[in-house]
Design a protein that fits this description.
CATH class of one domain: Alpha Beta
Order of helices and strands: HHHHEHEHEEHEEEHHEHEHEEEHEEHE
Largest sheet: 6 strands, mixed
Strand content: 15-25%
CATH superfamily of one domain: ACT domain
Distance between the termini: 95 Å
CATH topology of one domain: Alpha-Beta Plaits
CATH architecture of one domain: 2-Layer Sandwich
Number of strands: 15
Amino acid sequence: MAKAKPKKRLEGRATRSAKSTRPAEPLEPPPSSLEDLLEEQARLDRQLVEMLNERAKTMVEIALTRKQAGQAPFVFAEEEERISRAVAANPGPLPNEAIRAALREAAGGCRSLVRELRVAFLGPLYTYSHLAAILYFGQSVELAPVGSIAAVFEEVNRGQSDFGLVPIENSTDGRIADTLDMFTRLPLKICGEVELEIHHFLLGKCARDEVHEVYSKQQPLSQCRNWLARHLPAARPIEVTSTSTAAQLALEKPGAAAIASLQAGMHYGLDVIAERIEDHPNNTTRFAVIGDHATGPTGNDRTAILFQTEHRFGALVDVLGVFKRSELNLTWIESFPVPDCARTYLFFVEIEGHESEKPMQRCFQSLRTRTLRLEILGSFPAAVRRE
């Protein structure tokens, strides 16, 4: 009897067969060609243009509806709030400030379809006031540089400009006296504010060890004095009327440098000798937007007032007690001399809240009985803090 042949083991073969029948791993899609990417970008650009034009049509309708109702066609506080909400929803990768700048320029372009606004500021171009005006209004307005803070007020007071933008306070040097003085002379209101981070650059066409003179306005020279003492002790600081003028001198004079903005340096073709030379890294200047435009409450407002007390013992304490009893928080208080009146002072105060609110109204009623002069300089939305 023949022996039965042993069965062959098929496990290995079966295993190999099972492996061969598994579905293949999904492959990554092939990378898009450059032509495909460029076409996709062009499609997105066309879509953006279409959406921007739709936004413009809507904004024009809003402005015309407001004008028919006897209201101001543009409400900057609402505009800023809409932009802030959009920025808060930004998932990236674009940074928030890039989104904010794009939306502000879009809003400015939409406004120009209804009416081109003229904004006066302390010039010339590429000063920090110019940069602050762009930051607040965008570039789709007529930006009008003038020679002094007083000229900004006069432009608006005579109706030659819709708005003015003036520096009011610096985090290093404090109040801007020329601005506060003009509020005592002309009946203009504060209807907005903007904060600008101030970064000073040493600009020129020579190396640092070749700099013998440093030109700038008084405030930048003051805000960089410690840096200059450490790094350019032999260089002579020279005060000029503006940082842009300083940049122009640095271009023309051998051995000269300017303290100015990076944008001024780019405009005049200067090299950056040293960057961010301000003594305090959190150096900011607050600018007031002035005009005769009232702004409604937003829930995050400040109110500016100007008052003068009697020249007697305890007069200022009596006034400050009114704010305490009204439970109003003061965010800023400054004293400065009354023009042409020796040893007499005015007080400039900013308060949290809007002038239309009842606690503020009661406070003003009480203040009128305790002051020689009281002027409400306006309520305005507090500046948006930059990320």
